[in-house]
Design goal:
Strand order of the largest sheet: 3-4-5-2-1-8-9
Distance between the termini: 74 Å
Largest sheet: 7 strands, mixed
Number of helices: 23
CATH topology of the largest domain: Beta Polymerase, domain 2
Shape: globular
Structural class: alpha+beta
CATH architecture of the largest domain: 2-Layer Sandwich
CATH superfamily of the largest domain: Beta Polymerase, domain 2
Number of strands: 11
Strand content: 5-15%
CATH class of the largest domain: Alpha Beta
């Protein structure tokens, strides 16, 4: 039995009172059977779009998907998507059907769906409707297309990546015929908008079984990011390349489910291929190539910058001293600095233990220092400085860029241990720095 929220039952009852069939369908059924609480609730119904609107007069509705039979209804501050039973026509763009025909048949509606685990419906009175073996595939942890997988991927090529995402997130295996079709039709992804590919790929990368999906379907990944070819594909130094791909996969498996972190670990090997360059130049080149690849695939600017920074700084020396840690915190910010440490930890742990032991011990010292600095609330940022812009202006400093410059000077002095983070001392030094002709010296 599936626990359906009251607001969803209310929608079903409203449709049934008006003489229409209604069932929850798709992902919410799958997730409920897996013991998870669904994020979204979708309903399929025999009501046509205009009939849905008639049933929900007085409710806020969104008609964006009306062409495809979908009306979103806001019920008790929850959005519920209602879609008319339909049969999809041919898809010339391999993403959306050219035409849809509304139907009176739940069977026909379920038949058009992507995978058996997503092609189940449920009614609070009649129970589960499973016409394609979805519940069995759930129990066996299998991703299987509904009907002919080649037809399903022709209809919507994005389903190729959806299969990999479900396999990665759920830890399921992809059934052989479905897997064969993925390999045979992976080039259809060129018809799909890059933003949609990026969203699915990010989901794959964040799954608990991401390494399986990346490794088993590396040829699909290469179709998205051909830049990864030197890392994934064997070459004249084939043994080294294969080994490095396994190192990359292992490092991803050891990292938290953080998109920036896992993207950086996926791409960081681009820098390692440039063996004839100094590591600073090599890492910068790797970061630039990564940024170009991500920009081409329409990743947002903030993610590109964050990933590129991790790669550009992957070999920058770090020291466990408190002053050095505070310098890094000032430069990068706490979130980014913690990511840098997680990035390196995943890399080191993916190596042979004996090879990485010294690096891991050094990293642990830095982590302990970071914990001490943060627990003691030691000053490394302007927000922690016991002086602000208004205090500086009150000294007679003209409002504007000079104020910020002066505060940054004072912060550097505190971090370097030249003066304490004490308001009176800071005021004295702010006055001294703003009027250099006055006698110098700490108060």
């Amino acid at each position: 039995m599936i626990n359906i929220p009251l607001f969803v039952k209310k929608v079903i009852q409203t449709l049934e009172r008006n003489g229409f069939e209604a069932y929850i369908v798709g992902g919410c059924v799958r997730d409920s059977l897996l013991g998870s609480v669904p994020n979204d609730w979708d309903i399929c119904t025999s009501a046509r779009p205009e009939e849905i609107l008639s049933c929900f007069t007085g409710f806020r509705v969104i008609e964006t998907g009306r062409r495809y039979g979908t009306i979103a209804v806001l019920v008790e501050n929850h959005v519920v998507e209602l879609t008319t039973f339909r049969v999809d026509g041919v898809s010339s763009d391999h993403r959306r059907p050219n035409t849809v025909a509304f139907s009176e048949s739940l069977l026909e509606d379920l038949r058009r769906r992507d995978f058996t685990i997503n092609a189940m419906a449920y009614h609070p009175k009649t129970g589960l409707i499973d016409l394609f073996g979805g519940q069995s595939d759930l129990s066996q942890k299998i991703i299987r297309s509904v009907g002919d997988p080649r037809e399903r991927f022709e209809e919507d090529a994005l389903r190729i990546l959806r299969a990999l995402r479900f396999a990665s997130i759920l830890g399921f295996a992809i059934e052989k015929n479905t897997a064969d079709a993925i390999f045979a039709q992976r080039d259809l992804l060129k018809h799909i908008a890059k933003e949609r590919i990026t969203k699915e790929f990010s989901g794959i990368l964040l799954g608990k079984d991401a390494v399986m999906a990346l490794d088993a379907y590396s040829s699909v990944i290469l179709g998205i990011f051909p830049e990864l070819s030197p890392i994934i594909e064997p070459s004249e130094a084939g043994w080294a390349k294969i080994s490095y791909w396994q190192h990359t996969l292992r490092s991803i498996s050891l990292a938290p489910e953080d998109l920036v972190l896992r993207l950086a670990l996926l791409f960081h090997g681009l820098a390692k291929q440039e063996e004839n360059h100094h590591f600073c130049e090599r890492d910068q080149n790797g970061a630039e190539r990564t940024g170009q690849a991500m920009k081409r695939m329409k990743y947002d600017k903030a993610t590109i910058l964050a990933v590129s920074r991790l790669i550009a700084e992957q070999d920058t020396p770090l020291s466990p001293g408190e002053m050095e840690v505070k310098r890094h915190l000032k430069q990068a910010g706490e979130d980014t600095f913690r990511r840098i440490l997680l990035f390196r930890r995943a890399q080191f742990m993916s190596l042979d233990r004996a090879e990485a032991e010294e690096s891991l011990q050094s990293l642990q010292k830095i982590e302990r220092t970071l914990q001490k600095v943060t627990e003691e609330n030691q000053c490394w940022s302007l927000s922690q400085l016991r002086l602000d812009g208004q205090d500086v202006i009150a000294l007679g400093v003209e409002e504007g860029p000079t104020v910020g410059k002066l505060l940054r000077q004072l912060l550097s002095m505190v971090i370097e241990g030249e003066i304490p983070n004490d308001k009176e001392v800071l005021l004295h030094n702010a006055s001294r720095l703003s009027c250099p002709e006055q006698p110098t010296g700490e108060k």
